[in-house]
Amino acid sequence: MIERESLLTNQPLIIAGPCAIESREQILDIGRQVNESVVHVLRTQLWKPRTKPTSFQGVGEKGLPWIEEVKEETGLPVACEVMAEEHVDATRNIVDVLWVGSRNMQNYSLLNKIAEDNRPVILKRGMIATVEECMGAAEYIGKDRIIMCERGIRTGADAMRFTLDLNGALTLKHDYKMPVIIDPSHPAGRSDMVEPLALAGIAAGLDGIVVEVHNNPAEALSDANQQITPEQFHQLTEKIKRVYSAIAK
Ligand code: PEP
Ligand code: MN
Questions:
Q1: Residue 165 — φ and ψ, nearest 5°?
Q2: β-strand partners of 124
Q3: How many whole angstroms from 186 Cα to the centroid of ligand 1?
């Protein structure tokens, strides 16, 4: 079992992988490629909350053996979003880090189910949630298991998909003493803005990033516009090192 504290070292936590697992070959290829850069946890999403029921919904439980294979091959721990209570049981002994998506941040029966588990949890901010509401959700599970994730909120600013709320993230970190990582992919909504948003989060002194990386973004079955390539991910990790050392005390 992985402890939350082992993910929170004195280096930024880097979590990377596709928006969704699409096939065995895809996750193995992406896992191998991101593992050539600095990465601490692989994103391995099996279930996808999609706006429309006709969109790709994820491969579901069928992908669990692929996750076991990519873990074995890369030696990396994995994180996976759970959308329903039964997913918590289905992922036990395979998925190291649970993850609550933005749309489920206030799904209290799911949060109560996760509270019975003991794995670390990435808790993504609801897209119109206040900082207080985020903390309420964290308390359902148990604050000492949570890594908060700022993934952008809906505001009047419509230049990109969502507004990355660094203010909220800094409040969670400094006033509520929570570890906070940034998801630069969903607020950007476009691959060319992922790097500057990620670096802004690191420059602000936050605890890491979770970024979408795909081996063929143009053909991705979800979030094709915002996924970056393994090469772009590599450049990003190099820049993160430089920004982090520039601000390190
Ligand atoms: C995701 O991480 O792919 C995702 C759906 O994010 P969010 O829950 O923040 O919308
Ligand atoms: Mn996505």
A1: -95, 85
A2: 149
A3: 7
Name the amino acid, one letter, at 19: C
Q: What is the DSSP string of 129-177?
A: --HHHHHHHHHHH-GGGEEEEE--B--S--SSSSB--HHHHHHHHHTS-
**Whose CA is closest to atom 7 on ligand 1?**
102
Convert the pLDDT of each residue in 154-167 to its tens digit: 999 999 999 999 99
Count of CA atoms in the C-beta half-sphere (13 A) of 124: 26
Atom nearest to 104 CA in ligand 1: 8
Helix axes 230-247, 24-34, angle to 10 degrees: 40
pLDDT bin (cut points 50, 70, 90) of residue 61 is very high
pLDDT tens for each residue of 117-141? 999 999 999 999 999 999 999 999 9
Q: Which of 47, 122, 124, 180 to mutate to test the pocket of ligand 1 (most atoms within 8 A of CB)?
A: 124
